[in-house]
Structure formats: structure tokens, C-alpha cells
Amino acid sequence: MLMLAKELKKANVKFRWTIFTDLNLYNQKPFDMEEIVYMQPSHDLWDYIVEADYGVQLSDTEGYSYFINECLEYGTPVICTDFPSAHECLEDGKSGYILDMDLKNLDIDKIVNHIPINFKYTEKGKVEDWIKILDKKEKEKSKDMYKIIAKQNYTDKRPELIEKYNDGQEINYNIEGNATIKRNDVYIINDTKRAEEIKASGFAEVKKIKEVETATAKAKTETAVKKTRKVKNIEIDLDKGTVKED
Fold it and tell me: What is the C-alpha separation between 39 and 200, in angstroms, rounded?
């Protein structure tokens, strides 16, 4: 962040960089630059986003950046670093610019004189998208499913293969990230090779079962979606003591 600000100053670019953060929370000192203004975190950032030339997200990594999507939704392009999920939200050169972590591809002239405008924002992660993804995942599953019934306590080093554990209970993990299995625990896996390894170990009884029906999983998902769509908007006026439902 400081590197980008210094490069802007070096190019004699006039700018104001407003940062919403709690420096005390992160035990950080403010940068000594008059162009950088610090403000306390707030949920009411919309006016700032709309008026800004860019939203800036210079993170080492992000899972899903709400900030990037909020900026794009309001028509404000984004400058961000090249973390993997950035490419899911941002189109470099069209809705913003994706910079290398070391800013080697930084082009001040492009950022200042070619601000992306009139780009089309497409919502990501709509309900329909999730239904398609879940349905696809179910179809991609192997037909060979196995029920594992633990005969003793042991550690399963491949917890990512566990489809269902003790009828929906959460898996217990040790400090190394392996699943801690207790005697009489029951779980489902979807990997023939792993099932054979567990069976050979003698730690558990292994039973081959039928494939989970995709249609059933899809029906449950669509039912959940329908229930979600029935939620009403409720407005409460504390002064008048009234409740309004849409």
C-alpha cells in the first residue's frame, strides 16, 4: 500500500486515499502521508464508494472479497493485488487492475488516465449458481460409497474424503488437522482406494453402500431455496411503535 502511494507521489499525481480501519486493533501506526486519511470502520461506506475513482484491496489473500464486489456493483473499478479469488470478481483492464504482489506490473499512467468505466457487473454466487454447482458435484461423485464403522480409536489422515460423519455431527480434528475417530464412530467416504486401506488396517469395518441419489440432494437444496425466498422484509419504526411487512 505504501509502495503504491509513494509511486503516485513520485509521478506527481494528486490523490486522497481514505482508509477505513482500526489501527489500534492491529497495533499499526498510521503512514505519515498527508494524502492518506484514516477513518473508523463503518457499514455506511456507499457514498464513499460511489464517489471514488477506485476501490483498493491490496491483500496477500482473500477468500471472497465483499468489498471488491460492492465496489463493482456501484460501478466503481478496483485496484487489487493478484490473490487467486481476485480473478473470480475482477477483469483486469475492464473493471479494474490486478497488480503483482511486488507491484512490478504497476502502470501509473494507465491507472490515472485510463480509469475503467461503463463495465457490466454480473452478480456472482446467485442461488441458481449454487444449485448448479451442488448438482454437478453430486454427479461427479464416484458410484462407490463406503460406510466406515470404527472398531477402535484411531486417526484418519484423509479427512477431506469424509462425506458424512456420525449422521451430520462435526468432525473432531487433532492439532495436525487429521480426523480423530473414536470407537463405534460411523462415517461415509467416497474413495475406493482409501476404503481398501482402512479395511486392510483392521481399524474399522468397511461396507460398500449405494450411491447417494443426486435428485434427493438437489430436491433438498431447492426446498431450502424456496423457503429462503419466503422471507419477508420487515420495517420497524421505534418512534411510532409500528411494524410494516412487505
Answer: 61
Sketch the domain layout of the chain as residue ranges.
2-113, 142-211
Residues 206 and 99: their CA atoms lie apart, in Å, by 50
What is the structure's pLDDT at 238?
Answer: 40
User: pLDDT band for position 242 (50/70/90)?
Assistant: very low
- Can you name the residues that pair with 156 across neighbouring β-strands? 179
Dihedral (CA of 27, 31, 34, 36) sign: negative
Q: Spell out a b/e string for 220-233, using b for 16 or more CB atoms within 10 Å of the CB, else e.
A: ebeeeeeeeeeeee
Residues 124, 72 contacting (CB under 8 angstroms): no
pLDDT one-digit tens code per residue, 157-207? 999 889 889 988 999 999 888 999 999 999 999 888 899 999 999 999 999
Alpha helices in the chain (DSSP H): 2-10, 46-51, 66-73, 86-89, 108-113, 127-140, 192-201, 214-229
Domain made up of 2-113: CATH architecture? 3-Layer(aba) Sandwich (3.40)
pTM of the shown model: 0.53
Residue 92: per-residue pLDDT: 94
CA–CA separation, 85 and 88 (whole Å): 5
The dihedrals phi and psi of 69, each to the nearest 5 degrees, come to: -65, -35
Q: Are strands 204-209 and 55-57 parallel, antiparallel or unpaired?
A: unpaired
